[in-house]
Amino acid sequence: MEEHVYGIIDSKIQFLDFQIKEMIKIKLGKSPQEIMVQEEHLPSIDSFEMDNKILDFLEAYSRNISLLLLMRTTLTYLSAETTFHLLTNDKYMDFTESQLRTVLEEAIHNQASQDLESIMDRAMKKLAMSS
């Protein structure tokens, strides 16, 4: 399951990158790569004519990428199910980065406790059978 969740996160990141590049291309008439080659730096915020839609889009893009990267870097087999649930219908967007970190840490801790409990339970049953 872990590999599938990585794939979902990576797909979402790629799609967001595509969206931001298209938005820049539409608003500035150039791709981000053309801007970097021709001007050696991104245009100043003034050249965006303080378009609130652009600023809102960039803010949402940054927040979304930040949350996705947090989930990607903390993903383990212990948190894969919770992460998958959060990715469903973009539920992860309901949390701040700090809240999401807490949810993922709790998922890992809870799953690890359950795994330890089941390991100990199976070991005790085997020990009882061997005596």
Gross morphology: elongated
Instruction: Please state the CA-atom Rg, rounded to the nearest Å.
Output: 22 Å
Task: Return the domain count.
Answer: 1
Number of strands: 0
* Quaternary structure state of the chains depicted: single chain
Biggest beta sheet summary: none
> How big a fraction of the residues is strand?
under 5%
Report the mean per-residue pLDDT as an integer: 84
Helix and strand pattern: HHHHH
Which class best fits the helix and strand makeup?
Answer: mainly alpha
What is the overall number of helices? 5
Q: What helical percentage do the residues reach?
A: over 70%
Gap between N and C termini, in Å?
Answer: 37 Å
Low-pLDDT runs: none
For the structure shown, list the relevant keywords.
single chain, 131 residues, mainly alpha, 5 helices, 76% helix, elongated
